[in-house]
Amino acid sequence: MILNLKGRLKLIADKVPKCNVLADIGTDHAYIPIYLVRNGVCKKAIASDIKIGPVKIASNNISLYKLSEKIETRLGNGLDTIEIDEADTIIIAGMGGTLLTELLEANKQKAVNANALVLQPMNDLHVIRKWLYDNAFEIYDEEIVAEGPKMYCVICTKFNGKKKQYTDFELHVGQSLIEKKDPLLASYCKMKVKQIDRVLEQLEDMKENDVLKSQYIRQKKDYINLIEKL
Ligand SMILES: C[S@@+](CC[C@H](N)C(=O)[O-])C[C@H]1O[C@@H](n2cnc3c(N)ncnc32)[C@H](O)[C@@H]1O
What we know:
By secondary structure, the chain is an alpha/beta fold.
């Protein structure tokens, strides 16, 4: 049976390096671990989720692809379900950036010991980038993918013990996206400008939000400056 991934899921899978044991936290359908084990990218995988429904769906899919010997399902919160040093690569994808950050903070040593973390937050990317930089993780690659009108960013990171300097704007737009001039970065920035304009409209009549307004205006200028340089 063929399993083709596309768009967001394919980019996440493409960013996973060859590994022994992959942990996919918040796996839901388990398509990513199934795809990666089938393609020999990882030898074994753990497909973990906090809800029983997704774990059952994952188990069914794993059986369907005859991979029950190689992919184990686990039920529980975040990285609690894996032992320290059990997984050399960890994926956390498709959840909010703040939750994702909390899951890493709750089991920091497991994240520190992994060879690679492939993260795909649905929002609040600045929160996760800040946590990674402040905790001496290196963001060694980032890439944007479009699916219809939506854009997603995949962050590849690992602990290297070196804290990096960053600006507030670089938390919102990853340094590596800027350095490598990601082909979708200009469109991504334009989308952000539109989002800021919508927020500014809502804040327009609220005097007490002057500080917030000026922060958004500053951010909008930074996005426009970056678009002009790309
Ligand atoms: C939108 S799905 C994403 C599925 C898949 N990772 C993807 O990117 O397509 C989010 C999944 O994360 C799970 N989840 C939410 N909070 C979690 C937590 N604290 N620990 C583990 N899984 C969690 C949900 O149950 C759900 O199955």
